[in-house]
Amino acid sequence: MAAQQSETPIAYELAKKQKEISVAEFFTKNRHLLGFDNKRKALLMAVKEAVDNSLDACEEARILPEISAEIIQMAEFKYKVVIEDNGPGIVKKQIPNIFAKLLYGSKFHTLRQARGQQGIGISAAVLYSQLTTGRPAKITSRVSKKEPAHYYELGIDTQSNKPMIAKESEVEWPKEHGTRVEIDLEGEYLKGSQSVDEYLKQTAVINPHVTIIYTNPKSEQVIYARATDKLPEQAQEIKPHPYGIEMGMLIDKLRWTESRTLQSFLTSEFSRVGPGTAKEICQHAAVLPNTKPSEVSRDMAEKLIQGIQKTKIIAPPTDCLSPIGEEALEKGLRKEIKAEFYCAKSRPPAVYRGNPFIIEVAIGWGGEIPKEEKANILRFANRVPLLYQEGACGMTKSIMETNWKAYGLQQSGESVPYGPVVILVHMASVWVPFTSESKEAIAHYDEIKKEIKLAVQECGRLLGSYVRKKTRISDQIERANMFEKYIPEVADSLAVLSNGKKEKILQGLQKMLVKPEIRQEIIEEGDSDDKLYRMEFKKEAENEEARQEAS
Predict the structure, then answer these.
(1) pTM of this prediction?
(2) Do 66 and 114 have their domain in common?
């Protein structure tokens, strides 16, 4: 018994095994969380992360993006991905950290629309390359024609999450500014709806200001030319909105703020809170406005949260967002989707958890779109295509919950509609609520789903009006053709009955024949008259909506 009591408790032995885990080491064992869970998807993710970085950099520097993407097959399941852009380049000392250190970036702590947020994407691609081929990533970057181009070969020390520099030098490079990334990895190239080809095509649709030159592993080159020379509006950084604050976040802000009073804390740390609103929050919370933030207890913080909810605060500013706009969205869709009818709609800004967002929807119908297949849904978040987890996405769910039969499409219950239609949904937000780190699907927030449904219904009404009017005109043409077919026989009979001349009767009947114009050539060419033509459908749709509301 005494011997047992003198033995060291097992807890001490277990404690010796505890150690800190590097974030790079964690993702080494859990790369599926970042989207690198199979060879085909890994190839797509590497291209996606590099292209997204290039687009963000060009837009921040107000440069019209020109991106070259090349995939070279080195061996079976071994590929080299080369992405080159004309962006502002990267300062020399930042290159190793940006490409070879996870959770390193400039956008995580800022509230404004951007493709990347977490500082994981491109470094995750470098990590996957290192795991599957053991080769370093090769980076070339130049910030000005007056400065040399810097070349690095980089890997990641997974134990410490720090860059390993295999080679560093200055090189000759013809570009005046830009960045080139070369990554060797294990992958698989296949065409289809979830391929690199589809990702780049959709990127060209949602970014009509970009030019992409793509060369696939079969040495086939595709050029996606820009449809507009207008860059998107630059998003401005904002502070968090009080309605989105949570207890832990509020306590952290109170601990680290430099403000001397609670009132100045509320006005300096949050958007849309002036001195008057700050006083009102304090009154509702039963807390003195001149209380020092460091003296606010957990109970007082809870009262502050309740005071914020009781106070009417205007919605957050929307200059932090850069929506595509209806005209540019329609141009992008026309450029890559050969349809007969197009329409686009941008919703007014809305808010979820204090974060502003804008939903945009576009529809293409008819033309070369397959008729006997389910609708092609194109999902985007901050101008980035979402190709995986379509069924788990809040965008898809919102589309399925819409009654598409009212708009001339086939639908069985709450399912994706069938017919010759492409439905594009874009969400612009300062913080997109993805369901995972791989950023493939949008969470099912009620506020977001509501806005998607409203935008879809607005486009749907225009589509339904167009389809009904086209069907009506087609029926009229069919009846006119039938009448035209029997005009000679009718003229013969009337000539016999009236003892008249057949030629005059025939001419009279032909004058009575008036065929309505579908104006198919205008629809296909998409000239300026097309807008006037579709305005008729918009007006008709609005009238029908008014009749439905009245009934």
Answers:
(1) 0.74
(2) yes
